[in-house]
Design goal:
Heat Shock Protein 90; 2 domains; 5-stranded antiparallel sheet; 6-stranded mixed sheet; single chain; about 35% helix; alpha/beta; Transcription Regulator spoIIAA
């Protein structure tokens, strides 16, 4: 049986959050299905992603690690909260120890919404850009002015370069409008560009640095502390880079 047939997820929105209600069986085959869906939901930048497990059957308690995996991926580049609602079906599981270090666990969806509180201290701004190479100039000007307003020091010049390369990549290959997002949090500056193209981006492997980058994405990897991309649930993808 296909993994997708063993697991389905109902999605809804409430108070700026995305609520995911998986049903079926979470096992080694459906683990990546749920993982990828949660990452896609986070890529749309809701206030939080709340996962209600009431209708989900766990093939093993260790499979709850999927939520830690998702949180670790999200936390590299975004402040989107991940909240798990075990519900009566999984209330007996141990949601303490290592799991509680990474996850917010609440008894029900309403409690999760009530306890979200204010987002972590951050500065954030966005710019919508048309599918044109002229957007590169607009993006670099936007990043330069934003870094000046936020009093960003040495990362300002690499941020301008990274933003220009990502926007140019979206204009040339995705040929779709792009959304440039800047977020400053905990001395980390995230540059993210979302577009409507579902095709993957061939980023250099993590940790690899080319002495003389030959392409724009190699230059992005060379300048950034971390890079990555993920599909969006609403369509398209987001490509991001984090600068210290």
């Amino acid at each position: 049986m296909d993994a997708d047939a063993r697991l389905s997820c109902a999605l809804s929105e409430l108070q700026g959050t995305t609520i995911v209600r998986p049903s079926g069986v979470l096992d080694v085959r459906t683990y990546p299905v749920l993982r990828d869906l949660l990452l896609k939901c986070a890529a749309d930048q809701p206030r939080a992603v709340i996962v209600d497990l009431e209708d989900l059957e766990l093939a093993g308690d260790h499979l709850t690690s999927v939520f830690v995996t998702v949180w670790l991926r999200i936390s590299q580049w975004s402040t989107v909260r991940l909240v798990v609602v075990p519900g009566p079906a999984h209330a007996a599981l141990s949601w303490h120890g290592p799991l509680r270090r990474f996850l917010s666990v609440r008894p029900d969806v309403l409690a999760a919404l009530a306890e979200l509180g204010e987002p972590p201290p951050r500065q954030r701004t966005e710019l919508w850009l048309p599918p044109s190479t002229l957007s590169v100039r607009a993006a670099t000007r936007f990043v330069t002015e934003t870094c000046h307003n936020w009093d960003v020091g040495p990362p300002a010049v690499p941020a301008v370069t990274v933003a220009g390369e990502l926007v140019e990549n979206a204009a040339e290959h995705a040929r779709s409008p792009a959304r440039l997002r800047l977020e400053l949090r905990l001395a980390r500056l995230t540059v993210a560009v979302a577009d409507d193209d579902v095709r993957p981006v061939l980023l250099p492997p993590p940790g690899r640095r080319t002495p003389a980058p030959r392409s724009g994405l190699q230059l992005v990897a060379h300048l950034a502390h971390a890079t990555g991309w993920t599909p969006r649930q609403s369509g398209g993808k987001v490509v991001w880079a984090v600068l210290r």
